[in-house]
Amino acid sequence: MKWTLRRWLVVAGLATGLLACSSMPPDGVGYARSSALPAPPDPPDNPTTPEKAALGKQLFFDKRLSGDGSMACQGCHFRHLGWTDALPLSRKVGGGMNTRHTPTVYNTGYYTAWYWDGRAKTLEGQITAAWKAQIGADPAKATAVIAAVPGYQAGFQKVFGAAPSEENIAKALAAFLRTLNSGEAPWDRYAAGDKTAVSADAAAGAELFTGKAGCAACHRPPLYSDGMFYNVGLEAGKAQPDLGRFAVSKDPADTSAFKTPTLRSVGISGPYFHDGSVASLEEAVRYMAAGGKADPHKSQILIDRKLSEKEIGQLVAFLNTLTSEESFAPPKLP
Ligand code: HEC
Ligand code: HEC
Fold first, then answer.
1. Most buried residue, 12, 88, 115, 272, by most Cβ within 10 Å?
2. In this predicted model, what pLDDT tens digit does every residue of 106-149 receive, in sequence order?
3. Is 303 in contact with 214 (CB distance < 8 Å)?
4. Any idea which ligand is nearest the CA of 284?
5. Is the minimum distance from the CB of 230 to ligand 1 under 6 angstroms?
6. 307 with 269: CB under 8 angstroms?
Protein backbone atom coordinates (compact mmCIF):
# COMPACT_ATOMS: atom_id res chain seq x y z
CA MET A 1 0.00 0.00 0.00
CA LYS A 2 2.71 2.37 1.13
CA TRP A 3 4.88 1.80 -1.92
CA THR A 4 1.95 2.14 -4.28
CA LEU A 5 1.35 5.63 -2.95
CA ARG A 6 5.02 6.54 -3.13
CA ARG A 7 5.24 5.18 -6.65
CA TRP A 8 2.20 7.22 -7.60
CA LEU A 9 3.87 10.34 -6.23
CA VAL A 10 6.92 9.79 -8.42
CA VAL A 11 4.72 9.34 -11.49
CA ALA A 12 2.64 12.37 -10.51
CA GLY A 13 5.85 14.37 -10.11
CA LEU A 14 6.93 13.49 -13.64
CA ALA A 15 3.47 14.21 -15.01
CA THR A 16 3.48 17.62 -13.31
CA GLY A 17 6.83 18.31 -14.94
CA LEU A 18 5.38 17.35 -18.33
CA LEU A 19 2.35 19.59 -17.83
CA ALA A 20 4.48 22.49 -16.64
CA CYS A 21 6.66 21.99 -19.67
CA SER A 22 3.87 21.88 -22.22
CA SER A 23 2.22 24.99 -20.82
CA MET A 24 5.42 27.03 -20.98
CA PRO A 25 7.45 28.34 -23.86
CA PRO A 26 10.36 25.99 -24.70
CA ASP A 27 12.70 28.15 -22.67
CA GLY A 28 10.16 28.54 -19.85
CA VAL A 29 12.70 27.36 -17.30
CA GLY A 30 15.27 29.69 -18.70
CA TYR A 31 17.34 27.36 -20.82
CA ALA A 32 16.43 25.76 -24.10
CA ARG A 33 15.91 21.99 -24.07
CA SER A 34 15.07 19.48 -26.71
CA SER A 35 15.12 16.75 -24.11
CA ALA A 36 12.80 13.76 -23.93
CA LEU A 37 12.71 14.49 -20.21
CA PRO A 38 10.81 17.55 -19.04
CA ALA A 39 12.62 19.90 -16.65
CA PRO A 40 12.47 18.35 -13.17
CA PRO A 41 10.38 20.06 -10.51
CA ASP A 42 12.18 22.78 -8.52
CA PRO A 43 11.63 23.23 -4.79
CA PRO A 44 9.79 26.53 -4.17
CA ASP A 45 12.80 28.07 -2.39
CA ASN A 46 15.29 27.21 -5.13
CA PRO A 47 13.98 27.86 -8.63
CA THR A 48 16.44 26.95 -11.37
CA THR A 49 17.70 29.81 -13.52
CA PRO A 50 20.41 29.64 -16.19
CA GLU A 51 22.67 31.93 -14.14
CA LYS A 52 22.27 29.86 -10.99
CA ALA A 53 22.90 26.61 -12.85
CA ALA A 54 26.03 28.15 -14.44
CA LEU A 55 27.30 29.14 -11.01
CA GLY A 56 26.63 25.63 -9.72
CA LYS A 57 28.48 24.20 -12.71
CA GLN A 58 31.58 26.20 -11.79
CA LEU A 59 31.35 25.03 -8.17
CA PHE A 60 30.90 21.38 -9.24
CA PHE A 61 34.18 21.53 -11.14
CA ASP A 62 36.08 23.60 -8.55
CA LYS A 63 38.57 21.87 -6.25
CA ARG A 64 38.56 24.91 -3.96
CA LEU A 65 35.23 23.62 -2.64
CA SER A 66 37.00 20.72 -0.89
CA GLY A 67 38.68 20.64 2.50
CA ASP A 68 42.25 20.45 1.20
CA GLY A 69 41.72 21.87 -2.27
CA SER A 70 42.50 18.51 -3.88
CA MET A 71 39.17 17.32 -5.28
CA ALA A 72 36.06 18.70 -6.91
CA CYS A 73 32.65 17.05 -7.02
CA GLN A 74 33.50 15.93 -10.53
CA GLY A 75 36.45 14.00 -9.08
CA CYS A 76 34.06 11.05 -8.91
CA HIS A 77 31.29 12.24 -11.21
CA PHE A 78 32.93 12.66 -14.64
CA ARG A 79 30.68 13.74 -17.46
CA HIS A 80 32.28 11.51 -20.13
CA LEU A 81 31.65 8.49 -17.89
CA GLY A 82 27.96 9.29 -17.52
CA TRP A 83 28.81 11.37 -14.42
CA THR A 84 30.41 8.38 -12.68
CA ASP A 85 34.06 7.39 -12.27
CA ALA A 86 34.58 3.91 -13.76
CA LEU A 87 35.66 2.55 -10.36
CA PRO A 88 33.86 -0.15 -8.36
CA LEU A 89 34.32 1.98 -5.21
CA SER A 90 36.01 5.37 -4.88
CA ARG A 91 38.26 7.00 -2.32
CA LYS A 92 37.11 10.14 -0.50
CA VAL A 93 39.23 13.16 0.34
CA GLY A 94 40.99 12.13 3.57
CA GLY A 95 41.58 8.56 2.38
CA GLY A 96 38.41 6.74 3.48
CA MET A 97 36.84 4.37 0.97
CA ASN A 98 33.21 4.56 -0.05
CA THR A 99 31.32 1.34 0.60
CA ARG A 100 28.96 1.99 -2.30
CA HIS A 101 29.59 2.59 -5.97
CA THR A 102 29.41 6.17 -7.29
CA PRO A 103 26.03 6.54 -9.04
CA THR A 104 25.38 8.83 -11.96
CA VAL A 105 24.21 12.37 -11.23
CA TYR A 106 22.26 12.45 -14.48
CA ASN A 107 18.52 12.85 -13.84
CA THR A 108 18.88 13.22 -10.07
CA GLY A 109 16.40 16.12 -10.14
CA TYR A 110 13.55 13.66 -10.67
CA TYR A 111 14.10 11.57 -7.57
CA THR A 112 12.27 12.17 -4.32
CA ALA A 113 14.97 10.48 -2.21
CA TRP A 114 18.73 10.52 -2.78
CA TYR A 115 21.59 8.04 -2.35
CA TRP A 116 21.35 4.31 -3.03
CA ASP A 117 19.28 3.94 0.15
CA GLY A 118 17.29 7.17 -0.24
CA ARG A 119 18.45 8.54 3.13
CA ALA A 120 18.59 12.16 1.87
CA LYS A 121 15.19 13.81 1.62
CA THR A 122 16.26 16.81 -0.47
CA LEU A 123 18.86 17.24 -3.19
CA GLU A 124 20.22 20.33 -1.41
CA GLY A 125 20.62 18.24 1.78
CA GLN A 126 22.32 15.45 -0.14
CA ILE A 127 24.77 17.95 -1.63
CA THR A 128 25.71 19.43 1.74
CA ALA A 129 26.37 15.88 2.99
CA ALA A 130 28.56 15.06 -0.03
CA TRP A 131 30.42 18.34 0.44
CA LYS A 132 31.48 17.22 3.91
CA ALA A 133 31.78 13.47 3.47
CA GLN A 134 33.13 13.05 -0.08
CA ILE A 135 35.37 16.08 -0.52
CA GLY A 136 36.18 16.48 3.17
CA ALA A 137 35.13 20.10 3.52
CA ASP A 138 34.24 22.10 6.56
CA PRO A 139 31.51 24.05 4.72
CA ALA A 140 32.16 27.22 6.76
CA LYS A 141 35.86 27.24 5.83
CA ALA A 142 35.26 26.28 2.20
CA THR A 143 32.63 29.02 1.93
CA ALA A 144 35.23 31.55 3.09
CA VAL A 145 37.62 30.33 0.37
CA ILE A 146 34.90 30.68 -2.30
CA ALA A 147 33.83 34.07 -0.93
CA ALA A 148 37.37 35.38 -1.37
CA VAL A 149 37.25 34.81 -5.16
CA PRO A 150 36.15 38.04 -6.91
CA GLY A 151 34.41 36.17 -9.75
CA TYR A 152 32.30 34.20 -7.27
CA GLN A 153 31.50 37.38 -5.29
CA ALA A 154 30.06 38.90 -8.44
CA GLY A 155 28.28 35.69 -9.47
CA PHE A 156 26.58 35.17 -6.11
CA GLN A 157 25.56 38.84 -5.95
CA LYS A 158 23.94 38.54 -9.35
CA VAL A 159 22.12 35.27 -8.62
CA PHE A 160 21.29 35.48 -4.92
CA GLY A 161 21.80 39.19 -4.17
CA ALA A 162 24.15 38.06 -1.41
CA ALA A 163 27.69 36.84 -0.71
CA PRO A 164 28.42 33.10 -0.99
CA SER A 165 26.99 31.16 1.97
CA GLU A 166 26.83 27.45 2.79
CA GLU A 167 23.16 27.48 1.92
CA ASN A 168 23.36 29.21 -1.44
CA ILE A 169 26.43 27.19 -2.50
CA ALA A 170 24.31 24.03 -2.01
CA LYS A 171 21.42 25.69 -3.85
CA ALA A 172 23.57 26.60 -6.84
CA LEU A 173 24.98 23.07 -7.03
CA ALA A 174 21.44 21.64 -6.87
CA ALA A 175 20.28 23.97 -9.66
CA PHE A 176 23.17 22.73 -11.83
CA LEU A 177 22.37 19.08 -11.12
CA ARG A 178 18.72 19.69 -12.06
CA THR A 179 19.92 20.59 -15.57
CA LEU A 180 21.86 17.33 -16.03
CA ASN A 181 19.30 15.28 -17.85
CA SER A 182 20.25 12.55 -20.26
CA GLY A 183 17.29 13.07 -22.54
CA GLU A 184 18.90 13.30 -25.97
CA ALA A 185 19.66 9.71 -26.83
CA PRO A 186 19.31 7.82 -30.13
CA TRP A 187 16.36 6.05 -28.54
CA ASP A 188 14.64 9.42 -27.99
CA ARG A 189 15.11 10.29 -31.67
CA TYR A 190 13.68 6.89 -32.59
CA ALA A 191 10.69 7.43 -30.30
CA ALA A 192 10.15 10.84 -31.90
CA GLY A 193 9.83 9.21 -35.32
CA ASP A 194 13.37 8.81 -36.74
CA LYS A 195 13.22 5.09 -37.50
CA THR A 196 16.87 5.07 -38.63
CA ALA A 197 18.14 6.19 -35.21
CA VAL A 198 18.59 2.67 -33.76
CA SER A 199 19.23 -0.85 -35.06
CA ALA A 200 16.57 -3.53 -35.47
CA ASP A 201 18.16 -5.43 -32.57
CA ALA A 202 17.85 -2.38 -30.30
CA ALA A 203 14.19 -1.96 -31.24
CA ALA A 204 13.60 -5.66 -30.49
CA GLY A 205 15.40 -5.13 -27.17
CA ALA A 206 13.00 -2.31 -26.27
CA GLU A 207 10.07 -4.65 -26.89
CA LEU A 208 11.64 -7.21 -24.59
CA PHE A 209 12.42 -4.57 -21.98
CA THR A 210 8.80 -3.48 -21.60
CA GLY A 211 7.39 -6.94 -22.39
CA LYS A 212 8.71 -10.44 -21.83
CA ALA A 213 11.81 -9.42 -19.84
CA GLY A 214 9.76 -7.42 -17.32
CA CYS A 215 12.41 -4.72 -16.84
CA ALA A 216 10.10 -1.72 -17.16
CA ALA A 217 8.19 -2.79 -14.03
CA CYS A 218 10.97 -1.04 -12.07
CA HIS A 219 12.99 0.79 -14.73
CA ARG A 220 9.99 2.78 -15.82
CA PRO A 221 10.36 5.05 -18.87
CA PRO A 222 10.99 7.87 -19.49
CA LEU A 223 13.44 7.95 -16.58
CA TYR A 224 14.01 4.17 -16.56
CA SER A 225 13.68 4.32 -12.77
CA ASP A 226 10.63 4.28 -10.53
CA GLY A 227 12.58 5.78 -7.63
CA MET A 228 11.69 2.75 -5.49
CA PHE A 229 13.91 0.34 -3.53
CA TYR A 230 14.37 -3.36 -4.23
CA ASN A 231 16.58 -6.17 -3.09
CA VAL A 232 17.97 -7.82 -6.23
CA GLY A 233 20.07 -10.40 -4.39
CA LEU A 234 23.49 -8.76 -4.60
CA GLU A 235 24.18 -8.97 -0.85
CA ALA A 236 23.23 -12.66 -0.64
CA GLY A 237 25.93 -14.69 1.10
CA LYS A 238 28.10 -11.71 2.10
CA ALA A 239 29.57 -11.93 5.62
CA GLN A 240 28.50 -8.37 6.44
CA PRO A 241 25.66 -7.53 4.09
CA ASP A 242 24.90 -3.88 3.35
CA LEU A 243 21.36 -3.47 4.73
CA GLY A 244 20.55 -0.72 2.23
CA ARG A 245 17.13 0.88 2.58
CA PHE A 246 16.46 -1.00 5.84
CA ALA A 247 18.80 1.39 7.67
CA VAL A 248 16.44 4.23 6.72
CA SER A 249 12.98 2.65 6.87
CA LYS A 250 13.60 -0.06 9.52
CA ASP A 251 11.18 -2.19 7.50
CA PRO A 252 12.54 -5.75 7.30
CA ALA A 253 11.11 -5.99 3.77
CA ASP A 254 13.67 -3.32 2.79
CA THR A 255 16.67 -5.40 3.87
CA SER A 256 19.46 -4.88 1.32
CA ALA A 257 17.08 -3.00 -0.97
CA PHE A 258 18.58 -0.22 -3.11
CA LYS A 259 17.15 2.48 -5.33
CA THR A 260 16.34 1.53 -8.90
CA PRO A 261 18.99 3.42 -10.88
CA THR A 262 18.06 5.35 -14.01
CA LEU A 263 19.26 3.41 -17.06
CA ARG A 264 19.66 6.52 -19.19
CA SER A 265 23.33 6.64 -20.28
CA VAL A 266 23.94 3.30 -18.55
CA GLY A 267 26.09 2.23 -21.52
CA ILE A 268 28.93 4.55 -20.40
CA SER A 269 28.57 4.33 -16.62
CA GLY A 270 30.03 0.95 -15.64
CA PRO A 271 30.89 -0.82 -13.41
CA TYR A 272 27.40 -1.57 -12.20
CA PHE A 273 25.21 -1.97 -9.12
CA HIS A 274 25.43 -0.42 -5.65
CA ASP A 275 28.53 -2.45 -4.87
CA GLY A 276 30.20 -1.88 -8.25
CA SER A 277 30.56 -5.66 -8.47
CA VAL A 278 29.75 -6.15 -12.15
CA ALA A 279 32.11 -4.84 -14.81
CA SER A 280 30.15 -5.02 -18.06
CA LEU A 281 26.66 -3.99 -19.09
CA GLU A 282 26.08 -7.39 -20.68
CA GLU A 283 26.91 -9.13 -17.41
CA ALA A 284 24.58 -6.77 -15.50
CA VAL A 285 21.72 -7.45 -17.93
CA ARG A 286 22.37 -11.18 -17.72
CA TYR A 287 22.22 -11.01 -13.92
CA MET A 288 18.92 -9.08 -13.88
CA ALA A 289 17.29 -11.20 -16.60
CA ALA A 290 18.16 -14.39 -14.70
CA GLY A 291 16.33 -13.05 -11.64
CA GLY A 292 19.31 -12.31 -9.38
CA LYS A 293 20.78 -14.41 -6.56
CA ALA A 294 18.40 -16.06 -4.13
CA ASP A 295 17.75 -13.94 -1.02
CA PRO A 296 14.81 -14.09 1.40
CA HIS A 297 14.17 -10.37 0.83
CA LYS A 298 14.61 -10.37 -2.92
CA SER A 299 11.86 -8.62 -4.90
CA GLN A 300 9.31 -11.09 -6.16
CA ILE A 301 9.02 -9.16 -9.43
CA LEU A 302 12.56 -10.23 -10.25
CA ILE A 303 12.37 -13.72 -11.74
CA ASP A 304 14.32 -15.76 -14.27
CA ARG A 305 12.92 -14.60 -17.61
CA LYS A 306 14.63 -17.47 -19.45
CA LEU A 307 15.97 -15.27 -22.22
CA SER A 308 18.05 -16.58 -25.11
CA GLU A 309 21.55 -15.33 -25.89
CA LYS A 310 20.08 -13.37 -28.78
CA GLU A 311 17.54 -11.69 -26.49
CA ILE A 312 20.24 -10.72 -23.97
CA GLY A 313 22.16 -9.14 -26.85
CA GLN A 314 19.05 -7.24 -27.94
CA LEU A 315 18.48 -5.87 -24.43
CA VAL A 316 22.10 -4.67 -24.32
CA ALA A 317 21.72 -3.10 -27.77
CA PHE A 318 18.62 -1.27 -26.57
CA LEU A 319 20.25 0.00 -23.37
CA ASN A 320 23.19 1.32 -25.41
CA THR A 321 20.76 3.53 -27.36
CA LEU A 322 19.88 5.36 -24.13
CA THR A 323 23.21 7.22 -24.03
CA SER A 324 22.47 10.92 -24.26
CA GLU A 325 24.31 13.07 -26.80
CA GLU A 326 23.51 16.51 -25.41
CA SER A 327 26.23 19.09 -25.83
CA PHE A 328 28.27 20.07 -22.82
CA ALA A 329 31.20 22.40 -22.27
CA PRO A 330 33.21 22.42 -19.04
CA PRO A 331 32.96 25.72 -17.16
CA LYS A 332 35.61 28.43 -16.97
CA LEU A 333 36.46 28.85 -13.31
CA PRO A 334 36.62 32.37 -11.85
C1 HEC B 1 34.95 10.44 -3.67
C2 HEC B 1 33.89 10.25 -4.67
C3 HEC B 1 32.76 11.26 -4.71
C4 HEC B 1 32.85 12.64 -4.77
C5 HEC B 1 34.09 13.48 -4.83
C6 HEC B 1 31.48 13.12 -4.82
N7 HEC B 1 30.61 12.07 -4.82
FE8 HEC B 1 28.61 12.18 -5.13
N9 HEC B 1 28.43 10.21 -4.69
C10 HEC B 1 29.50 9.36 -4.44
C11 HEC B 1 28.98 8.10 -3.94
C12 HEC B 1 29.81 6.88 -3.55
C13 HEC B 1 27.58 8.23 -3.87
C14 HEC B 1 26.59 7.18 -3.37
C15 HEC B 1 26.66 7.08 -1.84
C16 HEC B 1 25.52 6.29 -1.24
O17 HEC B 1 24.52 6.06 -1.91
O18 HEC B 1 25.61 5.93 -0.07
C19 HEC B 1 27.28 9.57 -4.38
C20 HEC B 1 25.98 10.07 -4.55
C21 HEC B 1 25.71 11.33 -5.05
C22 HEC B 1 24.38 11.80 -5.40
C23 HEC B 1 23.08 11.01 -5.26
C24 HEC B 1 22.66 10.35 -6.53
C25 HEC B 1 21.40 9.54 -6.35
O26 HEC B 1 21.03 8.81 -7.27
O27 HEC B 1 20.75 9.61 -5.30
C28 HEC B 1 24.51 13.11 -5.80
C29 HEC B 1 23.41 14.03 -6.26
C30 HEC B 1 25.91 13.45 -5.68
N31 HEC B 1 26.61 12.33 -5.26
C32 HEC B 1 26.44 14.71 -5.89
C33 HEC B 1 27.74 15.07 -5.52
C34 HEC B 1 28.19 16.44 -5.32
C35 HEC B 1 27.35 17.69 -5.49
C36 HEC B 1 29.50 16.36 -4.96
C37 HEC B 1 30.41 17.49 -4.53
C38 HEC B 1 29.98 18.22 -3.34
C39 HEC B 1 29.86 14.94 -4.98
N40 HEC B 1 28.76 14.20 -5.28
C41 HEC B 1 31.13 14.46 -4.78
C42 HEC B 1 30.82 9.64 -4.65
C43 HEC B 1 31.34 10.92 -4.74
C1 HEC C 1 12.30 -5.49 -9.12
C2 HEC C 1 12.67 -4.28 -9.84
C3 HEC C 1 13.62 -4.45 -11.01
C4 HEC C 1 13.45 -5.19 -12.17
C5 HEC C 1 12.25 -6.05 -12.55
C6 HEC C 1 14.64 -4.99 -12.95
N7 HEC C 1 15.51 -4.16 -12.30
FE8 HEC C 1 17.33 -3.59 -12.96
N9 HEC C 1 17.72 -2.79 -11.15
C10 HEC C 1 16.83 -2.69 -10.10
C11 HEC C 1 17.52 -2.21 -8.93
C12 HEC C 1 16.89 -1.96 -7.56
C13 HEC C 1 18.86 -2.05 -9.29
C14 HEC C 1 20.02 -1.66 -8.37
C15 HEC C 1 20.33 -2.87 -7.53
C16 HEC C 1 21.55 -2.76 -6.64
O17 HEC C 1 22.54 -2.18 -7.04
O18 HEC C 1 21.47 -3.35 -5.53
C19 HEC C 1 18.95 -2.39 -10.71
C20 HEC C 1 20.11 -2.30 -11.47
C21 HEC C 1 20.17 -2.55 -12.83
C22 HEC C 1 21.34 -2.30 -13.66
C23 HEC C 1 22.63 -1.65 -13.19
C24 HEC C 1 22.55 -0.14 -13.39
C25 HEC C 1 23.64 0.64 -12.73
O26 HEC C 1 23.78 1.82 -13.08
O27 HEC C 1 24.36 0.12 -11.85
C28 HEC C 1 21.01 -2.69 -14.93
C29 HEC C 1 21.89 -2.60 -16.16
C30 HEC C 1 19.66 -3.20 -14.87
N31 HEC C 1 19.18 -3.11 -13.59
C32 HEC C 1 18.99 -3.72 -15.95
C33 HEC C 1 17.77 -4.41 -15.84
C34 HEC C 1 17.19 -5.20 -16.89
C35 HEC C 1 17.78 -5.36 -18.29
C36 HEC C 1 16.05 -5.74 -16.39
C37 HEC C 1 15.11 -6.71 -17.07
C38 HEC C 1 15.71 -7.97 -17.47
C39 HEC C 1 15.92 -5.27 -15.02
N40 HEC C 1 16.99 -4.48 -14.72
C41 HEC C 1 14.87 -5.59 -14.19
C42 HEC C 1 15.50 -3.02 -10.14
C43 HEC C 1 14.93 -3.83 -11.11
1. 272
2. 999 999 999 999 999 999 999 999 999 999 999 999 999 999 99
3. yes
4. 2
5. no
6. no
